[in-house]
Write a structure and sequence with these properties.
Structural class: alpha+beta
Number of helices: 6
Number of strands: 17
Order of helices and strands: EEHEEEHEEEEHEEHHEEEHEEE
Helix content: 10-25%
Largest sheet: 8 strands, mixed, barrel
Strand order of the largest sheet: 1-2-3-4-6-7-8-17
Strand content: 35-45%
């Protein structure tokens, strides 16, 4: 397995926090060319983080190709691994200010900013969209969480939202419900595979532009994500396009608190049809010698 000491090995970062013990860990492997798909999947499984990003210069010289693998499957777009990748690239190249990442979903431009507290990255997500959830699918999913429709926030309709990947958005009425989230892993994984959802994003609206979130990621072989940039972008697009937020606006999302890995995601929502932007920090996870 590649190691942090290898020049083309897997670097380990945590995104959406400056604390290595918080945020969402991601693997980042920058190399001269992408590995074979089976090798990327194997390495991602060995790393064990919710995603590992594999990055290589494009043959046409226009930015970089990037592919994201969870321990169980490839995903088309991953926000936290994108933030981690941009910060890793900026630390390797002190002149870097912008980078274009060609994902399996779309081209994702990322800007980096250096400050006294480290590097911050802002990605512009692929175009946002959302649509309704079939009643039978909603009831089936709620049952897997041990809930019924009484837990939902009547002000925010459930939706399948996308900004590079599909996410079921389940708005719950109370913070207590969110804190108690639990589900049948295999049952939810089967539904997510069938419905092509990357995560189930359970959110609670604490204020008009402040949310607490938890993201079930059974389809990726991970119970829960501490910070999910792609879901944050999808939520911002859904709020704008469903008329639930007046753009331009900045949405603050607190995630990972109930896992002991607090994360902060800032989502800038421009007027339609502008691209949703997600901003976060990232920091290298120290290598622990055995």
């Amino acid at each position: 397995m590649p190691t942090d000491s290898h020049p083309e090995g897997v670097m380990r970062y945590t995104a959406f926090s400056r604390d290595p013990a918080a945020g969402n860990p991601a693997g980042v492997m920058i190399s001269s060319r992408l590995l074979a798909e089976q090798d990327m999947q194997r390495i991602a499984a060995e790393v064990g983080f919710s995603e590992t990003a594999f990055v290589a210069p494009r043959a046409d010289g226009d930015g970089y190709d990037v592919r994201y693998f969870s321990p169980a499957a490839e995903v088309p777009f991953c926000g936290h691994a994108t933030i981690a990748t941009a910060v890793a690239m900026a630390e390797r190249d002190p002149t870097l200010e912008h980078v274009r990442l060609s994902t399996r979903s779309d081209v994702v431009p990322v800007a980096v900013r250096r400050g006294t507290d480290g590097v911050t990255a802002t990605l512009t997500a692929p175009p946002a969209s959302h649509g309704p959830v079939l009643d039978r699918v909603l009831d089936e999913t709620l049952g897997i969480f041990g809930w019924d429709r009484g837990v939902l926030d009547p002000r925010l309709p459930t939706s399948v939202a996308s900004a590079g990947a599909n996410h079921l958005v389940l708005p719950v009425a109370t913070r207590r419900t969110l804190a108690g989230m639990a589900y049948d892993f295999e049952a939810l994984r089967a539904v997510m595979l069938r419905e092509t959802w990357t995560t189930v994003s359970v959110v609670h609206r604490a204020a008009p532009a402040v949310f607490h979130a938890r993201n079930a990621f059974a389809v990726g072989g991970v119970v829960e994500d501490p910070a999910t940039g792609a879901a944050a972008a999808a939520l911002g697009g859904y709020l704008r396009d469903a008329g639930l937020l007046t753009a331009p606006a900045r949405v603050t999302i607190h995630q990972g608190e109930d896992m002991g890995r607090p994360s902060l995601l800032l989502v800038d929502v421009p007027p339609a049809p502008g691209g949703i932007q997600v901003t976060g920090s990232a920091v290298r996870i120290p290598v622990v010698s055995s």
